[in-house]
Structures are given as structure tokens and as C-alpha cells.
């Protein structure tokens, strides 16, 4: 068997037979003074680790599923070359499973008085702030017999933002918005409309839209047209209570709700409406108010990054009171919550009238696509029981949705992939009907 590099060196110094791979250092040093001297020299020639300096730079944020590169600059102020193994430690959720070893460990050589840069590539698997733990470095001598080791705190934070996967729907929704906003005027005035222009009467137009004063000033009959009103107030309310922690597919319901809220916020801000955000369970988890159209989406994304479901029952009365304080004037309140019977019937319905008296209310909920698949199951006894359970669950959700509609609430119930575009369509329909 061929010896390793260390074993060959020890054999050359007469410390052990060539075939031995792992020496007993205590016995070797006791019987072989030349080896002891070689080890002492190797240790002395290893660059000291305490005098090293570290500076971080690079990305401070990244969307979930994307990579973030953090650069670590290592400066060797000593007069000895640094030959080292370095581990840049981050939380486990900073990497894809199985990639931590290859991503966080580096080999480097830094000549005396010089610096080198290494890049640690993160690929976070969870939202929120990921903070660097410590840098551990092991400095070897030229023979690699002994090493110096030490750790340094080099702080750095990377904020992992929501992925906003529904952004792909934004161009089509903006196209529909442009059709509503001035290009397709209506003749009927509604609560959420404003005067657009005058045009000549066409047979079949509603006679109530005739502007008699304008008609008296010209030779033809003039009618008024209206368009959806701008500068409306949209309050997005995220329920971060226990029901938002339920997983649908690979992610909690809260993640699908946030994605839908981001698409609606992007669309509403382009429509000239003001968008605010409230995240609540038993207390306020996030609040974004008074942002300009260009700043509202980055502010919402940043506020949502650190939101996590709380395993507590949502206080519906507290949520309602906080929403009313946040939106003192008439607004569209979009409540992203559950349609489960118990939380709605015992919590939301008793206080819902306080919201609907002053505001338009839209309730959006994430449906589980697995329930629909279960409802179509057939062929075995277990499949029939699953279908019956799924049908019962769907009937309960439909009953709760009907109760909300009887209170004047618009209800959106869709799977995670469809919730964002369906919610955007509901907003556009309200805007077209002048109900905002």
C-alpha cells in the first residue's frame, strides 16, 4: 500500500514503518527528535489566525429561490504565507439540502501582507433574515503536520424576500386595466366612477346620460361618459394566525396569500390607487402606510420578508378595530384569511358588519387542490370515503362563502396557483362596476 504524504515524511524520518497511515503522535514525538523538530518548525511557520482581518461585501437581499453572493476579503498582515482551509458558517436554511459543504468551505493561499477574496454563494430555502455565524479558519505550515485554528465574528445579513411568482400575470392584468382606464368609458355613473368626457349621442345610449346643458350649447345631443375613479384606498389585510400555517402543497397558506397581495398591490398602484398593508393575528405584525406608487411594492416585499405564521387564534375583534383605524375613510379592504367554518362563524361574522358599514370588503382564501382531487376519487372503498370527506369539506366552504356574500362581501376562493390572478380579476371587476 502506498503511503500518504505525511506517512512518507514520518517514515523518512525513521519514526514508523512505511505502511502505517495514522501515526500515534505521542509515541512518535517521544522517540524521534528530528520529527519533533519538524513539527515544531511547521507549527511556527503557519500564519497566525488571530491577526487575520475579514471584511464582508456583496448582496444584502435575494428573492426566495434565487442565489446571493457574499464576498469575504481575507487580509494576511503577518510575514508568513497563509495556507488555510476556511469555513464560512451560515444557518442551515441558507443552502439547498446537501450543498452546505461545497458552498461554505474554501481553500485559500494569501501571501504575506496581501489579501484575497472568496465568494460564498447562498441559496436560501426560507424567507426572512439570514445572518452569518462565524468564520473558522485553519492555518497550516508548509509540511501540513500541524495547524493553527481560530474563529472570527464577521457579521452580515441577507434578507430573503418573497418570490412574487405571480408577477407573470401582471402584463395581462395591466392590459385589462388600460381598457378600463379611459379607453373604455361607461355611460352609467357609479360610486367608484368620475367624469371622463362628452361625446355625441348614438341611438341606443341611455337617455339619462344626456348632458342637457352641453346639448343646448351645440347643435347635437351630447352625452356624458364616466371612467373608474382613481386615488381609491386599498387596504391589504394578511391574517397571520394559525390557519395561515396550514401547508398547501410545499408552502404555507400565508405564502400564497402574500403572493396574491403583491400582484394586487402592483396592479392597484398602476391604477393610481393607494395601497396599504396590515398583517395581524393578536397584534400587528407588519404595517405599511403612505407609500408612493413607485415605493409601495418594495416596501410591501420588505415587510413581508420576515412574516411567519403564528400558532395562535386570530383575534377578529382586534383585527377589525385595527383595520378601521388604519382606514378611517371609505376603502376596499382585502382580507386574506381562511374560509374554514369555525374561525369565520365564531370570529369574523360577529364583527363583519363594522367593516361592511363603512368599507367594501373582499375576502380571499387559499383552497387546497388536494381536496378537489379527493372529491373525484373512485374505485376503492378508501377512495369513496375520501371523496365523501372532500365533498363535505367543499360544502362547508361554500356555505361559509354564501354567508359572507349575504353580508355584502365579495369572496374569492382559489388554489395557490390561481389565487393571485383571480383576486386581480375581482379587483378589476369591482373597479369596472364602480364599486370601489
UniProtKB/TrEMBL annotation:
InterPro entries: DUF58
Annotated ranges, domain DUF58: 198-374
Domain of life: Bacteria
PANTHER family in UniProt: BLL2464 PROTEIN (PTHR33608), SLR2013 PROTEIN (PTHR33608:SF3)
Protein name stated in the entry: DUF58 domain-containing protein
Amino acid at each position: 500500500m502506498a503511503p500518504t504524504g505525511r506517512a512518507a515524511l514520518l517514515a523518512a524520518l525513521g519514526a514508523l514503518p512505511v505502511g502505517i497511515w495514522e501515526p500515534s503522535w505521542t509515541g512518535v514525538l517521544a522517540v524521534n527528535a528530528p520529527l519533533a523538530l519538524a513539527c515544531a518548525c511547521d507549527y511556527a511557520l503557519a500564519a497566525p489566525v488571530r491577526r487575520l482581518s475579514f471584511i464582508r461585501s456583496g448582496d444584502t437581499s435575494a428573492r426566495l429561490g434565487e442565489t446571493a453572493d457574499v464576498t469575504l476579503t481575507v487580509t494576511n498582515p503577518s510575514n508568513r504565507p497563509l495556507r488555510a482551509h476556511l469555513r464560512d458558517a451560515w444557518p442551515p436554511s441558507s443552502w439547498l439540502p446537501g450543498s452546505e459543504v461545497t458552498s461554505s468551505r474554501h481553500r485559500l493561499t494569501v501571501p504575506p501582507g496581501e489579501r484575497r477574496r472568496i465568494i460564498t454563494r447562498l441559496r436560501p430555502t426560507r424567507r426572512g433574515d439570514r445572518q452569518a455565524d462565524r468564520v473558522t479558519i485553519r492555518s497550516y505550515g508548509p509540511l501540513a503536520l500541524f495547524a493553527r485554528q481560530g474563529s472570527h465574528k464577521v457579521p452580515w445579513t441577507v434578507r430573503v424576500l418573497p418570490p412574487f411568482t405571480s408577477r407573470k400575470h401582471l402584463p395581462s392584468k395591466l392590459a385589462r386595466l388600460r381598457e378600463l382606464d379611459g379607453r373604455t368609458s361607461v355611460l352609467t355613473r357609479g360610486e367608484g366612477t368620475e367624469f371622463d368626457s362628452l361625446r355625441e349621442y348614438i341611438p341606443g345610449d341611455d337617455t339619462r346620460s344626456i348632458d342637457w346643458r352641453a346639448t343646448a350649447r351645440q347643435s347635437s345631443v351630447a352625452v356624458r361618459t364616466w371612467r373608474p375613479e382613481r386615488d381609491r384606498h386599498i387596504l391589504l389585510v394578511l391574517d397571520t394566525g394559525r390557519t395561515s400555517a396550514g401547508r398547501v402543497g410545499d408552502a404555507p397558506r400565508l405564502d400564497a396569500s402574500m403572493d396574491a397581495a403583491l400582484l394586487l398591490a402592483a396592479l392597484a398602484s398602476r391604477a393610481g390607487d393607494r395601497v396599504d398593508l396590515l398583517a395581524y393575528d393578536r397584534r400587528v405584525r407588519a404595517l405599511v402606510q403612505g407609500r408612493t406608487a413607485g415605493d409601495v411594492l418594495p416596501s410591501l416585499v420588505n415587510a413581508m420578508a420576515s412574516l411567519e405564521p403564528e400558532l395562535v387564534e386570530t383575534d377578529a375583534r382586534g383585527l377589525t378595530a385595527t383595520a378601521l383605524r388604519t382606514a378611517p375613510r371609505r376603502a376596499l379592504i382585502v382580507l386574506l384569511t381562511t374560509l374554514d367554518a369555525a374561525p369565520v362563524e365564531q370570529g369574523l361574522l360577529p364583527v363583519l358588519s363594522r367593516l361592511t358599514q363603512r368599507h367594501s370588503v373582499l375576502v380571499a382564501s387559499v383552497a387546497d387542490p388536494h381536496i378537489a382531487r379527493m372529491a373525484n376519487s373512485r374505485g376503492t372503498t378508501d377512495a369513496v370515503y375520501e371523496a365523501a370527506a372532500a365533498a363535505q369539506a367543499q360544502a362547508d366552504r361554500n356555505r361559509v362563502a354564501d354567508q359572507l356574500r349575504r353580508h355584502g362581501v365579495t369572496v374569492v376562493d382559489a388554489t395557490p396557483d390561481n389565487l393571485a390572478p383571480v383576486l386581480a380579476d375581482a379587483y378589476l371587476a369591482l373597479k369596472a362596476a364602480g364599486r370601489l
